[in-house]
Amino acid sequence: MLDLFAVPGDLHRLPGGQGQSVLAGDLVLSPGRDHGIADQLNPRLARMAVELDTRSRRDLRIAMPIPARDGTWVVDGWTASRYEPGSRACTDAAVVRATGALLHAEFAQAFARWPLAMQPPRSRWDRAERIAFGDQALDPGELSDAQTTFARELLDRCNTEPFGDDQLVHGDLAGNVLLDAVDVPVVIDVAPYWRPVRWADAVCVLDLVMWSGADPMLLHDWSGGSLQAILRAALFRLLSDLEPDAEHVDLYRVALAPLL
Predict the structure, then answer these.
(1) Residues 106 and 173 in one domain
(2) In angstroms, rounded to a whole number, what is the distance separating the alpha carbons of residues 224 and 107?
């Protein structure tokens, strides 16, 4: 694998994410990647990365995906992207959300469709997203009792109120925005979904409050944008977790209590 990406064997684990990405030479290698997604996403992300980096005003960047020597984007489940020296995690909630708004505006222009939107779910996150939007039934056999109980409560509050048109969105933005050496936001690890931008922003806000120490009022204030988007964001996160215990589920209850 290292030979196909033309990098040395001296690997260094990188912080953030799930703690599985490593630095090899000038590339970041990340495991557990899907061939189908990478083949559809990475060629266009690479073009976008070049275009954004050559604009006179640089207010958004995307980590450049790098193919292997044989032209493939995934080798033994690993993908590569260009390392950004001097980069650091962005912890400012307002900057993260503003970055998402810029990114999704670019996606709306670059992606007229997403071929994988109508294909069978490819992961537990895909299944959770389909259930959250009513495209797949809730299967209690795949969930803990605590997950099932709270998921049913949230589903009972969902309705068909529209909250935006579908487009390509990053469904895991919080934690995946860096600031480069001159403080320009760099988006990494795009998790692609064909859903409304408000939903992606709701997932981002929920994650910022739940796991990044953002002020809980951010979630309360945002809910005026669309309670339905927040409900579906919470379902997506709750149902994609691997058998969380009751205490873990209660964290979602506490965060969402003022909205429900």
Answers:
(1) yes
(2) 25
Query: Is the distance from CB of 42 to CB of 30 less than 8 angstroms?
Result: no
Range of the domain at 35: 1-83
Q: What is the pLDDT of residues 104-125, one digit of tens each?
A: 999 999 999 999 998 999 899 9
Query: Which contacts qualify for 219-225: CB closer than 8 Å, 24 or more apart?
Result: 219/255, 219/256, 219/258, 219/259, 220/258, 220/259, 223/259, 225/163, 225/198, 225/201
Q: Based on the domain organization, do 235 and 154 belong to the same domain? A: yes
- Looking at 38, 67, 83, the residue that finishes a domain is 83
Q: How many domains does the chain have?
A: 2
At 156-196, the pLDDT tens digits run 999 988 899 999 999 999 999 999 999 999 999 999 999 99
Amino acid at 119: Q
What burial class does residue 19 get, using C-beta atoms within 10 Å of its C-beta: 0-12 exposed, 13-18 middle, 19+ buried? exposed
CATH number at residue 98: 3.90.1200
Structure confidence at residue 248 (pLDDT): 87
Question: DSSP letter string over 186-251?
Answer: EE-S--EEEEEHHHHHHHHHHHHHHHS---THHHHHHTTT-HHHHHHHHHHHHHHSSS--HHHHHH
